[in-house]
Specification:
single chain, 11% helix, 39% strand, 5 helices, globular, mainly beta
């Protein structure tokens, strides 16, 4: 099953994709044509959002770093997110805005001190994020600062949350990013330094993960800078394609 969060008739609602990807079905049975939906970030209000730095070995090397020996985790605020088909904002003084295609794991059940061997049982589904980095604002690669990773409307996410059972092994997926149709980033999730299961074990060892919490699992190599007017598409095998346009921050 694929689920999306949309705005419909003044409401924010979750909807299921039905009928060959053409229609969305609301909880009350009402049907909405998918092409006419206004997509919202596929994030549950109140959920905790975790993100990983340098979690792909090839990206660490690309940036001149040794892959980390333990997860480099930071948090993201809800105002950073924008829905599928929306616009990501580029600061007027920035020329190094880098799109980062990321697999996102969505927690489906309370998880506390979960071992990695059972960790995927606690995943409800997966979605896609384009977690832009504004590299001239970066103060420390190992602890990304607020101006880099918590800017309003600088992390498109969606379109769908796809059931974990449909995705299968989260470490066997192809990821790619295209800018104006040109392939600029490609990788596979098996290159993660810390797998989805390992990240759940690590986080749940000291805090309880709750349904709706999300883990953005990092990005593979491929640093390229975008500019206002560019169209960016991040795609992950078995999950879908997330589209956003870049505009000047106002």
């Amino acid at each position: 099953m694929k689920r999306a969060r949309i705005a419909w008739q003044g409401r924010e609602v979750w909807a299921d994709l039905v009928d060959d990807d053409q229609w969305l079905r609301l909880a009350n049975g009402e049907r909405v044509e998918a092409a006419h939906a206004h997509w919202l970030p596929s994030v549950t209000p109140g959920a905790t959002i975790f993100a990983l730095g340098l979690n792909y070995a090839d990206h660490s090397v690309e940036l001149g770093f040794t892959p980390p020996s333990s997860p480099l985790v930071f948090l993201k605020g809800h105002a950073t997110f924008v829905g599928h088909g929306g616009t990501a904002r580029c600061p007027v003084d920035a020329s190094q805005m880098h799109p980062e295609c990321e697999l996102v794991a969505v927690i489906g059940a309370p998880a506390r001190k979960v071992r990695s061997t059972h960790a995927l049982d606690y995943v409800a589904g997966y979605t896609i994020a384009c977690d832009y980095a504004i590299r001239e604002y970066l103060e420390n690669y190992y602890r990304p600062n607020l101006r880099v990773k918590n800017r309003d409307c600088c992390t498109p996410i969606g379109p769908w949350i796809v059931d974990a059972t449909e995705v299968g092994d989260p470490q066997a997926l192809a990821l790619s990013t295209r800018v104006n149709g040109a392939l600029v980033q490609a990788g596979r999730s098996h290159d993660m330094v810390f797998s989805v299961a390992t990240l759940i074990e690590y986080l749940s060892d000291f805090m309880t993960l709750m349904p709706g919490d999300m883990i953005l699992t990092g990005t593979p190599h491929g640093v390229v800078f975008v500019k206002p007017g560019d169209r960016v598409i991040c795609e992950i095998e078995g999950i879908g394609a997330l589209t956003n346009d870049v505009e000047v921050e106002r």
